[in-house]
């Protein structure tokens, strides 16, 4: 991938519910950072993800995201979505981050499953002017951007990690380990706070 040299900082935005954050998220962010020459990747846990059912309270998801990203000097975590009342929309996420990074280029990172749904997101037609979108491969999902504006979306194959938060929650509820699926500190956080003991 040849990255155009604009002289501006390049900031990745990795939005997710992170319930819990797992190594699939971290590998995706790391690979996009490498391929697109990103200076920073901001992880943004959702507040109220309106297309998901009941989720773990935002503070737990936020803290697990902080723990998981703490060791990487280029990874940071933003509270913009959890501090904004109401349902979480990416249009608001990107507007808030653009305000905080007026001189930077934003790259929104998403998996193949999420990008396939993007036309159902609020104000989808206005997303493209706020960020470049990078869709990464994910086992079990076709990586395609049919119907999306070509210049505004890139596809990237990343090492396949067949991990999902749904599976992590289900494993914890059944007494199976999640060691090596999520970072060690997240395993300990889940245990300490008795998360996912029963899964809806
Ligand atoms: N294993 C993975 N490989 C690549 N991308 C992933 C992977 N898991 C999640 N993503 C992407 O990370 C973003 C945030 O995902 P999310 O927090 O919803 O995790 P999830 O594992 O899909 O959760 P759940 O199973 O609860 O739906 C989405 O864009 C999603 O496509
Ligand atoms: O903007 C929307 O309407 C919208 C609808 C669904 C998902 N998103 C965003 O997509 C990202 C991944 O979401 P999720 O629910 O798969 O964890 C996260 O940043 C969400 O805010 C955004």
Automatic annotation (TrEMBL):
The EC designation for this entry is 2.7.7.18
Q: Specify the Cytidyltransferase-like domain's residue ranges.
A: 13-171
**GO MF term (any one):** nicotinate-nucleotide adenylyltransferase activity
User: What are the alphabetically sorted keywords of the record?
Assistant: ATP-binding, NAD, Nucleotide-binding, Nucleotidyltransferase, Pyridine nucleotide biosynthesis, Transferase
Catalytic activity reads: nicotinate beta-D-ribonucleotide + ATP + H(+) = deamido-NAD(+) + diphosphate
Q: Which Gene3D superfamilies match?
A: HUPs (3.40.50.620)
| Signal peptide per UniProt | none
- Origin: domain of life: Bacteria
CDD domains, sorted: NMNAT
| InterPro entries (alphabetical) | Cyt_trans-like, NadD/NMNAT, Rossmann-like_a/b/a_fold
Q: Which pathway features in its UniProt record?
A: Cofactor biosynthesis; NAD(+) biosynthesis; deamido-NAD(+) from nicotinate D-ribonucleotide: step 1/1
What the entry lists under HAMAP family is as follows:
NaMN_adenylyltr
PANTHER family under this entry? Answer: NICOTINATE-NUCLEOTIDE ADENYLYLTRANSFERASE-RELATED, PHOSPHOPANTETHEINE ADENYLYLTRANSFERASE
Role, per record: Catalyzes the reversible adenylation of nicotinate mononucleotide (NaMN) to nicotinic acid adenine dinucleotide (NaAD).
Give the family per the record.
Belongs to the NadD family.
Q: By what name is this protein known?
A: Probable nicotinate-nucleotide adenylyltransferase
